[in-house]
Write a structure and sequence with these properties.
173 residues, mainly alpha, two-stranded antiparallel sheet, 8 helices
Length: 173
Amino acid sequence: MNSTPDLRYPIGRFQWPTTITPQDRREWINALAALPGQLRTAVAPLSEAQLANPYRPGGWTLRQTIHHVADSHMNSYVRFRLALTEDAPVIKPYDEARWAELSDAATAEVDISIVLLSALHLRWVLLLESLTDEQWQRTFVHPDHGPRRLDETLALYAWHGAHHLAHITGATS
């Protein structure tokens, strides 16, 4: 048995939930609300050299990882809004790896994305807290993965934030 941790998935791979309760949703919303502050705390002591290092061999730098979280969560927020205002809209995927290579993701101060995430998550949490049980069942369609319910997607993004936070804290511990 290999005891080497998988640096790609420090908290394990995401598992789609089979049942979702209102308490589950509350915990995932709380995780989204807490994420910007957790990221700020995690990166506060880091030097520019540390931010320029990848969290694993062949992985993104810590800087790119933080900017990726902002990119990804902005896309998800828009997908939620589309699903709430259109009937099963087909969303546009984006190339995460290529976005991470763009100049702003490779060089910008990480605080820019943390401030962005702070505002974005305030709006997102307000939206999420207003949803009815019926609205949580609304879907969007990912061209590669098919229909995704909003409650399932909330679980994914709560995991996504914790996943990348663990990359950052694991790389610096």
